[in-house]
Each structure stands twice: as structure tokens, then as C-alpha cells.
Amino acid sequence: MIxxxxxxxLGKVMDLEFNIQDSRITALVVPSDTSLLxxxxxxxxxxxxxxxDVYRIGDDVVLVSIHQPEQxxxxxxx
Length: 78
Known about the structure:
By secondary structure, the protein is mostly beta strands. It is 8% helix and 44% strand.
């Protein structure tokens, strides 16, 4: 996944947010930086990118243009 604003590589998609009522993807989640403590606890942290910010999906790359401040989410294992 590449951000069109600055060309930085955001990483591979690790999760999706899905609205079951509309049967639509609402966001993509890519890995974000984690602290040592989060890693030891097994937390998986990710950068949430709203579907509206996805510009194009290709065979090898997803282009996004992040317009709003980055939102991060962490999930506990299990």
C-alpha cells in the first residue's frame, strides 16, 4: 500500500473493516509501529485507512490518499 501524498510505503493490508448491514468494506488496516510492551503482550496495531481514501487497487499495489489525521487501532490476541 502506497500513500499518494508523500509516496511512502504503508505496508501490506492485514485486516478489513466490514459493514455487514451494507455488505461493504469500510476501511483497510495496515500495520503500524508498536511499542516493545505492545509486542510483548501480543497486540497487533494498525493504521485504519477509510475506504474513501483508497484511490486504486492493482495486482501488486494499493494506492491511497490519506486526507485526515491517521487513526491507529490495537487488538489483543484471542
